[in-house]
Design a protein that fits this description.
This protein is α/β, with parallel strands linked by helices and 415 residues long. It folds into two domains: 261 residues, TIM Barrel (Alpha-Beta Barrel), CATH 3.20.20.80; 72 residues, Immunoglobulin-like. Strand 14 and strand 15 form a beta hairpin. Helix 8 runs parallel beside helix 9. The two termini are 38 Å apart.
């Protein structure tokens, strides 16, 4: 996806993915095409739009690269190379994506974070430091939660990778890629709650990580479960299904899911999980499918969830999976719309009262307030309303507006 195709008005930051550590502390910038030309293009366009750009280091399966690069003998060289790369190419900060990050790695990771933050603080202008964190760290998880709590002031943002939350693992059931809630559902095999965005966020906060430091992940891709045996319908077609022979599961970009599989009659919304899916039954059960993905409603619900819980924001992986030339990037535009709500209020006389109209989004919580004197900065609550469905234009009536010399309204979200 070229930088020229990005709608920067929908974003606050851009993370350019990614350079990879070499064992001697140098950087591999060719593996993901982080060429000088590509760096120059994304930085220039983002800065023209007033948005900062971070360079990511790492990615999936990067732990074997990080370990030697952050050893006692190479850490200083690695930090110097990384900050020099950031500075010479005009980036505004660094995003760490050490995967997997195990409990045994926390010592070296902590040294890296502290060294990087110290080096970044030496620049005359503030340089950002963010991190991609596992939603559910490997056992024992508390050590990593404690580590993030102790390091949180070093980071500008801790972005939780609240996706890849399911798979055809032993003892599992079909489940969503990135559900907001677990709905109280527990694994039949263990009795433990299934993973969810809310479960991950709650774990970080319970271990003293500030909500304002946290971002939650929005997935611009989905999981395609197929086949399996031993379920009530043959192959897998629904969430929460068990099996005797495991189904397959593959990941696919949102664009591909919509182009290749989506039909309105196959679409379903799981209210307890706040997640979308497609249910596909075929004559041959081996071709049955359960497809879990984030759609426009899910994206907007996640914006509301972040607002309602006082989080720092949301994070997207990744923009290209929602983009096709000539299209409007439906998921990104849904997020942009959600961030812009409630927006303008329309007023209309209704009998003796005033009707207020504004746009609400799924899971949105709105406090509609009125005042008769702006200079006093005192506001009265007219009503607190919550959006339980898919969102849309809301109508709120103020029955006591008649005969008042002046009336001002505002909307707080969340209350």
């Amino acid at each position: 996806m070229p930088a020229s195709s990005i709608d920067f008005t929908a974003l606050t930051h851009v993370i350019h993915f990614s350079v990879i550590p070499n064992t001697d502390g140098s950087l591999n910038s060719s593996a993901n095409s982080v060429s000088l030309a590509n760096s120059t293009d994304i930085v220039a366009r983002a800065h023209a739009a007033g948005k900062p750009v971070l360079i990511c280091v790492g990615g999936a399966s990067s732990e074997p690269d990080f370990l030697p690069a952050t050893s006692n003998s190479t850490l200083a060289v690695f930090v110097s190379n990384l900050t020099n790369f950031m500075a010479t190419r005009g980036y505004d900060g660094i995003d760490l994506d050490w995967e997997p990050l195990t409990a045994a790695d926390t010592g070296q990771f902590t040294n890296l974070v502290n060294s990087l933050r110290s080096a970044l603080n030496a620049f005359p202008q503030h340089k950002l430091l963010t991190v991609a964190a596992y939603a559910y760290p490997p056992d024992p998880p508390n050590q990593e939660y404690t580590m993030y709590a102790s390091l949180q002031n070093q980071f500008d943002q801790i972005n939780i990778e609240t996706y890849d939350l399911s798979g055809p693992y032993p003892g599992w059931v079909t489940w969503f890629n990135s559900p907001i809630y677990d709905g109280g559902y527990r694994f039949p095999s263990t009795g433990g709650l299934v993973p969810s965005v809310d479960g991950a966020v709650s774990n970080f906060i319970a271990n003293s990580v500030s909500p304002a430091k946290l971002g939650i992940g929005i997935a611009f891709y989905g999981d395609i479960w197929q086949g399996g045996a031993g379920t009530s319908t043959g192959g897998v077609t629904q969430p929460r299904q068990s099996w005797t022979a495991a189904p397959s599961m593959n990941q696919s970009a949102y664009n591909t899911i919509i182009a290749s599989y989506y039909q309105s009659n196959l679409y379903h919304w799981d209210n307890s999980a706040q997640a979308a899916y497609l249910s596909i039954s075929n004559a041959n059960p081996a071709n049955d499918m359960f497809i879990s993905y984030d759609d426009q409603r899910t994206c907007q619900s996640k914006v509301s969830y972040a607002r309602n819980h006082g989080l720092g924001g949301v994070m997207i992986w990744e923009l290209a999976q929602d983009h096709q030339n000539g299209q409007s990037d439906p998921l990104l535009q849904a997020i942009k719309q959600a961030l812009a709500t409630p927006g303008l209020i329309t007023l209309q006389s209704v009998g003796p009262g005033i009707a207020l109209y504004f746009t609400g989004v799924p899971l949105g919580s709105y406090d509609v307030e009125w005042s008769s004197n702006l200079t006093g900065n005192f506001w009265n609550t007219l009503v607190i309303t919550n959006v339980s469905g898919s969102g849309g234009v809301l109508q709120i009536v103020d029955p006591n507006a008649a005969g008042q010399p002046q009336r001002f309204y505002r909307i707080q979200t969340p209350p």
